[in-house]
Amino acid sequence: MSMNIIKLDHQFSVSGQISVDDISAVAAAGYKSIICNRPDYEGGENQPHSEELEAMAKAQGIIFIYLPVKMGAVPTERVEAFQKLMVELPKPVLAFCNSGRRAAALHEMARQSNGDKVKVQDSVIDACNWGSAFDVVVIGGGSAGIGVTASLLKRRPTLRIAIIEPSDRHYYQPAWTLVGAGAYDIAETVKPMGNVIPRNAEWIQASATVFDPEQNKVRLDDGRVIGYRQLVVCPGIRTAWEKIEGLEETLGKNGVTSNYRHDLAPYTWELVQGFKSGKAIFTQPPMPIKCAGAPQKAMYLSCDHWLQAGCLENINVEFDTAGAVLFGVADFVPPLMEYVRRYHAKLVFNSNLVKVDGAQKIAYFEIKDANGTVIHEAKPFDLLHVTPPQMAPDFLRDSPLADASGFCKVNEKTLQHTDYANIFSLGDACSSPNAKTAAAARKQIVVVAGNLLAEKEDREFTAFYDGYGACPLTVENGKVVLAEFGFGGKLLPTFPLKPTVPSKLYWFLKKTVFPWIYWNGMLKGKEWLAHPRKSH
């Protein structure tokens, strides 16, 4: 028998998740009834469905009852239903969930309540706040959250880790730029969340709404309260489409698109293919944004297609950026400017998109001149690629964990929260002043995994983050300038090629190797080329 059965009394036992193959052993051990307290799909596709288990149990002559209980506070009616089952079911009974803790808590509450509903409710709060249930709670199931969970479990397989993530899909966002250029299949950029959640982690499919770091608790949008010993904050960055007036109503039509959304990247390619003449505007909002090179990458790849199609001379290309420079690391500006000139693109700095009239095809910008005076300008367009403003998620921004900008406040080298020693943060939601890219998260994962365990085990930190980030700048279809850099714009190349020279090899890495490493390495706890330096 693969599961570990714990006998609580002569009539009742609990265990962790059981498999279909375990049922015959349960029958052989003399159990007459099984209660499943684990909701279906809680652990992803690796978790057997209750209907499969029930069919096998019936074949073995065992009564099977599905009584799911989500992690967090247990509703009174679930306790009462459990009480009723313990009266009616043939004994002995085996109840299971992922670890057996919920089943044991239900049994204890039912035993103590004696039918008194008020006492039941009190016991729910006391017995099931799960304050000590999770060693680590991870907020976010993106690249940072899945990656750090996998790395932690690879180091310490016995850790009890919960991932709080509402979405049922996981995206590989770095490829959306390629999708918008017809160079990548959109279907290859998404997988069911259950397929990427590490097998030994708990997936709580809900949204975090409130942090209570003094009590080591997180409140969810469904009212549950989840406790932790250590917390990892990595919910990503929020794309604030609503900050641009009129944008949401016209996205996906009227020639308005964005590679920053899964459903819109294919529309970008549709527009680019059909575009033969007119005005094409590409925008970039104020920092911070994820993948700061993506706005201009959309421009380069579109222009390259138009150049190859022989129609670029009929297209007026403009890049409006709220920033004062083309790219934040000066070494990469000269090679990028060569492509700006090749594509005859007009650069407009300090120009921020604030409104879109899709029906009339007019984009409105606030442009700051050399004296700091802001002027408003309306620009007609035929194609508009928008990069949305971005900000920390509201529940983080409004929490005790946030700095003045709304991001999770950390020591930029250790990624430990500056006020709460048992909290760490990484990815786009942390305050470290690095480029917000998947490549940065890949390096940060190793730092957080190492330092979190060091804090847990009262050891000195030995992993320090150098600000590494990478931006594969797709300057044309088939060539990439691979910008790798750390804090202060220091170049941190991984490969021996000159980083400022466009390379076919880097295109191959961007299109083929990096996605494979992401799905098969980074999300699996394999820290290839990710280890940080070991000292300050």
TrEMBL record:
<dbReference type="Pfam" id="PF07992">
    <property type="entry name" value="Pyr_redox_2"/>
</dbReference>
<dbReference type="GO" id="GO:0070221">
    <property type="term" value="P:sulfide oxidation, using sulfide:quinone oxidoreductase"/>
</dbReference>
<dbReference type="GO" id="GO:0070224">
    <property type="term" value="F:sulfide:quinone oxidoreductase activity"/>
</dbReference>
<keyword id="KW-0285">Flavoprotein</keyword>
<keyword id="KW-0874">Quinone</keyword>
<dbReference type="GO" id="GO:0048038">
    <property type="term" value="F:quinone binding"/>
</dbReference>
<protein>
    <submittedName>
        <fullName>Sulfide:quinone oxidoreductase</fullName>
    </submittedName>
</protein>
<dbReference type="InterPro" id="IPR023753">
    <property type="entry name" value="FAD/NAD-binding_dom"/>
</dbReference>
<dbReference type="InterPro" id="IPR029021">
    <property type="entry name" value="Prot-tyrosine_phosphatase-like"/>
</dbReference>
<feature type="domain" description="FAD/NAD(P)-binding">
    <location>
        <begin position="134"/>
        <end position="254"/>
    </location>
</feature>
<dbReference type="GO" id="GO:0071949">
    <property type="term" value="F:FAD binding"/>
</dbReference>
<keyword id="KW-0809">Transit peptide</keyword>
<dbReference type="InterPro" id="IPR036188">
    <property type="entry name" value="FAD/NAD-bd_sf"/>
</dbReference>
<dbReference type="Pfam" id="PF04273">
    <property type="entry name" value="BLH_phosphatase"/>
</dbReference>
<feature type="domain" description="Beta-lactamase hydrolase-like protein phosphatase-like">
    <location>
        <begin position="8"/>
        <end position="110"/>
    </location>
</feature>
<dbReference type="InterPro" id="IPR005939">
    <property type="entry name" value="BLH_phosphatase-like"/>
</dbReference>
<keyword id="KW-0560">Oxidoreductase</keyword>
<keyword id="KW-0274">FAD</keyword>
<dbReference type="InterPro" id="IPR015904">
    <property type="entry name" value="Sulphide_quinone_reductase"/>
</dbReference>
<dbReference type="GO" id="GO:0016787">
    <property type="term" value="F:hydrolase activity"/>
</dbReference>
